[in-house]
Design goal:
Rossmann fold; globular; NADP-dependent 3-hydroxy acid dehydrogenase YdfG; SDR_fam; Sc_DH/Rdtase_CS; NAD(P)-bd_dom_sf
Length: 251
Amino acid sequence: MKTILVTGATSGIGKATAELLASQGNRIIICGRRSAVLEEEQKRLSAFTEVFFFTLRFDVRNLEEVEQAFGTLPEEWRTIDVLINNAGNAHGLDPLSAGKTEDWDSMIDGNVKGLLYVSKMVIPGMKERNSGHIVNISSVAARQTYANGVVYCATKKAVDVISDGMRLELTEFGIRVTNIQPGAVETDFSLVRFKGDQERAATVYAGYEALKAEDIADSIAYCVNAPKHVCISDMTIYPSAQAEPRTIYRK
């Protein structure tokens, strides 16, 4: 049994991952921004498994909140074996010349700085124990920049680079680092990107079968459950209809 911390665990990939890893007998720390949603998710998860859960409420973009939240962890929850850096966001689909700086800040703060803030809280303990596993959720957007999504692509490229750097710095301490690059996954991702415009968000997944959050959760579980001498360094996952980040074949 491992103690696993999942950021962004109240929806999408994070939620599916927390559920799957809990069903496999692990202890899960579910993290999110809203207390009511966290409590509801904890109750729901507890209904189908005997595994214990702990909730941490913080916004990964706020260093003070991150530090305060980790300071509330009881002693028996502080040995984190696996960190899954899933929290992140995409906002807008505008060219740079028309981009909103608040959207840029949100993506940079959430996708890059937030990942760093949380990792900084967990890595020292892993180094002391000479053991651990960090899974970072990047995107195929890191592989190929596309027009009108430049800042988002840049943040996910940063996740790739940070993952490489973590592996260079942490392998000697017995810490594995895995970088996951999902393609098109049908979650609330596009709904957030388009500021709640359901009609526009639905067009992203029209005419083909996109990946599901559970597909990415399966991949994360495979990496986490690999033998200790095995490190899945990078994994790219497309739906069958997607050939590369910008090319999807629709019916």
